[in-house]
């Protein structure tokens, strides 16, 4: 499978495993899982056939490990806008986490902090480089530093997805450090 096909399949999975499963007639269970055979059948029936080998390659080769296959089920690791409970345990975060954004969002972040927007959680990275790549998807990246230890001490709950993305309901402005 060439790189363009890999990206197309990954984006298709993101759309239907995170945001619009009903569009192709699949139903995610309460934890976001769907049977692999059901997904492949639905994709084919809706004009986007995916082979099992392509699916496995996208899951295994995705640089951000966005998807997880468990037995004969698949789900997105995080980033859902549809109602799912990923059933991730509360975890003790590292002292500092990072969030990538762009300059045009900074005024709102300074006023309201980081909010999940149309998703269930704010996504945080363990390193600046990952956060920089995330921010770069929308333009010139700005990396914010989040005082995760301070948030944890104040009672905020953190969870970590299978691919190492830290999830929190929101980040209040006082826990955010801005670059100079």
Beta percentage is 15-25%
- The total beta strand count reads 10
Major β-sheet profile: 4 strands, antiparallel
The helix tally amounts to 6
Choose one word for the global shape: globular
Description:
This protein is an alpha+beta fold and 180 residues long. The chain has two domains: 74 residues, Orthogonal Bundle (Arc Repressor Mutant, subunit A); 88 residues, ADP-ribosylation fold, CATH 3.20.170. 33% of the residues lie in helices and 21% in strands. It contains six helices and ten strands. The strands form three sheets. A four-stranded antiparallel β-sheet has the order 4-8-9-6, with no helix packed on it. Strands 1-3-2 form a three-stranded antiparallel β-sheet. It has a three-stranded antiparallel β-sheet with strand order 5-7-10. The longest helix is centred in the N-terminal third of the chain and has 17 residues. It is globular. The mean pLDDT is 93.
Features:
Arc Repressor Mutant, subunit A; 180 residues; ADP-ribosylation fold; four-stranded antiparallel sheet
């Amino acid at each position: 499978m060439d790189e363009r096909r890999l990206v197309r399949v990954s984006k298709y999975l993101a759309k239907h495993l995170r945001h619009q499963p009903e569009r192709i007639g699949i139903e995610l269970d309460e934890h976001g899982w769907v049977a692999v055979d059901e997904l492949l059948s639905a994709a084919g029936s809706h004009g986007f056939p995916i082979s099992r080998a392509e699916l496995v390659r996208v899951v295994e080769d995705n640089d951000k490990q966005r998807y997880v296959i468990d037995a004969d089920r698949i789900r997105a690791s995080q980033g859902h806008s549809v109602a799912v409970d990923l059933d991730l345990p509360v975890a003790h975060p590292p002292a500092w986490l990072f969030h990538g954004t762009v300059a045009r969002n900074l005024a709102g972040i300074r006023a309201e902090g980081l909010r999940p927007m149309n998703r269930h959680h704010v996504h945080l990275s363990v390193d600046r480089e990952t956060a920089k790549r995330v921010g770069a998807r929308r333009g010139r990246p700005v990396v914010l530093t989040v005082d995760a230890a301070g948030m944890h001490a104040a009672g905020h709950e953190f969870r970590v997805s299978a691919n190492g993305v830290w999830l929190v309901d929101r980040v209040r402005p006082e826990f955010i450090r801005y670059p100079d």
